[in-house]
Amino acid sequence: MSESPRIHEHMAARSASGSRKGATVSLIVLHSDPQPAADALASYAAPGATTAPHYYIDAAGAITQLVEEARAARHSGRATWNKRRRNIDPISIGVTLEHTPGTVVPAEQFEALQSLIGRLKSTYKLDDAAVQRWEDALPGLSTADGVLTPADLPPPIAHPTSVRGPVVLSDDDVPFDEGTICGGTQGSGPAVLSDDDHHMR
Questions:
Q1: What is the pLDDT of residues 150-199, one digit of tens each?
Q2: Deepest of 43, 108, 128, 134, by most Cβ within 10 A of its Cβ?
Q3: Where is this region: Disordered (predicted)?
């Protein structure tokens, strides 16, 4: 997809991000949030909010920027990546989808995700391996730690404007399942640990 995605601005509270402290962006981390888009965006922009992604993509494919890329959005906190446990917020761009785990990602939303990721990969000179999805380290428990796994996105759709309905992977019409792109959900979220360990699933 050659065209740059259309992006709306709805900036999160300053408390939902921090300094990158000189770190360079080396990851794009995908999350899912089952809340309705209006509720999710309102929570990120609320005074005193402590978590937010850089970008949010609603089910219709509208992209909203919440945090400047120059700042470290508090979207993940500590996670295991490359066998190392660390706070990945300073080295990542966080992207959240309006999505309930186990349901099909709408084509319009997936196209918007591909377009945004393409732009980010070009800007920061990242390869496919840099696109990771967040998974809870201990599913079902309120934990501030997670694990990053490859997102393994399908290739770009040749004619995105002609696609309607669920995204498919092959001629067998297999729906593109959410599990391929983003793992743990985010809702009320776990307790905040510290300025360096804010976490949003």
A1: 887 766 543 333 333 333 333 333 334 444 455 544 433 322 223 344 44
A2: 134
A3: 177-201
